[in-house]
Amino acid sequence: MSTSRKTLLASMSLLTVLAVLVGCAAPTPEVIEVEGTPQVVEVEVTKIVEVEKVVTAIPEAAGEEGPTGQIIISETADINALDPKFIKGRQTQNVVRLMFDSLYHRDNNMQIVPWLATSYENPDELTWRFHLRQGVKFHNGNGFTADDVKFTLSRLMEDDSVWNARKFVDQVEVVDDYTVDIITKEPYAAFMTRVVLWHMTDEDYFEEVGADGFASAPTGTGPFKFVEWAKDERLVLKANPDYWGGSPRIKTVIFAPIPESATRIAALESGDVDIITAVPPEYVDQAPAGVEIATVAGTRAFYLGLNVNVEPFDDVRVRHAMNYAVDVESIIENVLNGLARRIDNPLLPEAFGYAATPVYSYDPERAKSLLAEAGYPDGFEMELDTQPPLKEIAEVLAGQLGAVGINVTVNIMEKAALYAKYEPGFSQTFLTSWGNSEADADGILSKQFYSKRYGCDLLATEGETGFGNAELGCYYTGYGNAEVDAAIEGGKLDVNPERRKAHYYTALTIIVEEAPWLFLYNPSEIFAHSDRVQGWVARSDALFNLGETWVSD
Q: FRET partner for 338 with CA separation of 20 to 30 A, picked from 11, 69, 94, 212?
């Protein structure tokens, strides 16, 4: 461990507080009545976002006085790892992206812009050549070069990585110190949406301290440096005054996880924390003086996942019945305070590849009829797993399903335990969300509905991947369809935008008809913060950019 690391380990204490709830949300589309199997409707889709290939400016430097003050941020859960190779969830991304930079970056408007790379080019359809920014330093003083890019990708391609770079990256070649080629196995149209998620790692430091040392004391090139992590209590960062983009204005950032909504609110109102996430929608109209609300259209699709390989969810009639049994519009209006819009399929309208599909109308009588047809005239019993912020939604869904004879037991679990249960397929059903900050169909379809995703190969091992397979970390609903696989592959490999849209249209229509999800809603992201917090902008991907944030006292 370096001496600079030792000097960073200053202790900082924090808080405890009190109780429970949930929320999130934006406008709602017209509901389409569906008789029998949903029918596809033609629709004009959104245009692909073009990526700037040449840098025009670097981020503005902070004020001349240097970093000062402290901000405490409270999210619903703690991070899962400090090593970018293993990050899962937005809470972890929030912390990691403040310590690490990627080659390209999404700005506050969700546009992909140059970052550690100043530009890129494509010498051929498989090669992505990046020209790196010179003079960038890691927190320990080591210089950032093309060797670090190659090292980072080599780790992300290893079998134990949570990223799937190994699925499409063939090799990485260093051209010179500040030029690197990333070569894909096949053409990959959504490549740049993945580049923004790869956080660059210092090869020399990693080799010096080893995997365990790096995991406990990471060093990146980002605007903030790691100080300490007391699991489930606090994670402390301090400003990197030598950041290549200019020193942050805030000196210390503390992340303090508080799962219960009421407890987060109490901590904010008492001044123990400065910013809270996942604010209950009803609080928007109740915030007292000194508390400001920030809402922005979100990128998350909320759904109830069904394990399609176990009874009774292996019967599509049951899955249809459950979609007809839930009154999503009522949930949006009465629980989410109107701050959400209903989703018709896994994609949001802002994502490339979106096409409108039929919506399952609220029809409890039709739900009962389908259940009887499937052999469940008296309904059945099921378990629904979720986490504390979604407790109220889960209970409302349980009530609506109960009205058609489906008796639901709701299991409230901490985030890590929930993921450990539903990701390998041990859940019957689960209520959760999937963020698609990539704004591209590949960002969700290839991860949730592609049977050949790494480690799963659901179609190839049908009958062996049923209820509960501890070897799988990406089982989710266990859904697999060869035609959907072919469409997802076509959308990934075809660089022609119009043909990509056609592929994804095929996939979406089949997914909606086969219904491995109860398609619920897309909420606005709702934040609350003290009025002492200045210069902070809420982002639709719920990630924190704190480079220009400061406090007024």
A: 94
β-strands 250-255, 224-230 pairing: unpaired
Q: How far apart are CA 472 and CA 124, in angstroms?
A: 35
Report which of 217, 235, 509, 236 is spatially closest to residue 355, judged by C-alpha positions: 509
The pTM assigned to this predicted structure is 0.73
From the number of C-beta atoms within 10 Å of its C-beta (0-12, 13-18, 19+), residue 14 rates as: middle
Rounded Cα–Cα distance for residues 204 and 64 (Å)? 32
**545 with 508, same domain?**
no
Instruction: Say if residue 15 is in the same domain as residue 69.
Output: yes
400-432 per-position pLDDT tens digit:
999 999 999 999 999 889 989 998 899 999 999
Q: Read out DSSP for 117-137?
A: EEEEEEEETTEEEEEEPTT-B
Q: Which spans in 415-472 are helix H? A: 415-422, 442-448
- Cα of 2 vs its chain's centroid, Å: 33
Q: Which residues contact 239 (CB under 8 A, 6 or more apart)?
A: 67, 223, 224, 225, 247, 248, 250, 251, 252
Residue among 196, 198, 265, 199 at smallest CA distance from 226: 199
Same domain, 367 and 479: yes
* Location of structure tokens 């290839």: 446
